[in-house]
Amino acid sequence: MTQLRTLGGTPLSPLCFGTMQFGGTADAGASPAMYDACRAAGVNHFDTAHVYTGGASGTLLAQFIKAEPNTIHVGTKIAYTGGAGRKNINATFDAFQERLGLDYIDLLYLPALPLTPH
């Protein structure tokens, strides 16, 4: 089992599993097996983005974490498309938070793009 580290009072696995291929190369059959293997190894930190596999990655991750929402920590990226303006950041964040079925996102990444107004 992976030893957890504490970050700001939150117990996190030292490894984060990227879900970029959930619903893509890792199809709907392989993705749950990958998630289960991560959990068996003690991984509780998963990374995704609203653009991964056309949204399938987030949809699958949402299904997997539903049974243990308070023990899984999710990092995500927003505003990959449409610019990094406030309106787009809010819209992509809100849509993805809803897709994940979470009240909050643990870690939010913003790509290094030029900021645009609004």
Keywords:
two-stranded antiparallel ribbon; 3 helices; alpha/beta; 18% strand; 4-stranded parallel beta sheet; 31% helix; 6 strands; 118 residues
Short précis:
The protein has helices at 30-40, 56-65, 86-100; strands at residues 5-7, 10-12, 17-18, 45-49, 73-77, 107-109. The protein is α/β, with parallel strands linked by helices. The longest helix has 15 residues, at 86-100.
Can you offer a commentary on this structure?
This protein is of the alpha/beta class and 118 residues long. It has one domain (17-109). It is built from 3 helices and 6 strands, in the order βββαβαβαβ. The strands form 2 sheets. Strands 3-4-5-6 form a 4-stranded parallel sheet, covered by helices on one side. Strands 1-2 form a two-stranded antiparallel ribbon. The protein is globular and about 40 Å long. Keywords: Oxidoreductase.
Secondary structure elements and their pairing?
Elements: E1 5-7, E2 10-12, E3 17-18, H1 30-40, E4 45-49, H2 56-65, E5 73-77, H3 86-100, E6 107-109
Parallel strand pairs: 3-4, 4-5, 5-6
Antiparallel strand pairs: 1-2
Strand content: 15-25%
Number of domains: 1
| Number of strand elements | 6
- Main pleated sheet: 4 strands, parallel
InterPro entries: AKR_Detox_Biosynth, NAD(P)_OxRdtase_dom_sf, NADP_OxRdtase_dom
GO cellular component, one term: cytosol
Domain NADP-dependent oxidoreductase: 14-110
Pfam family, one: Aldo_ket_red
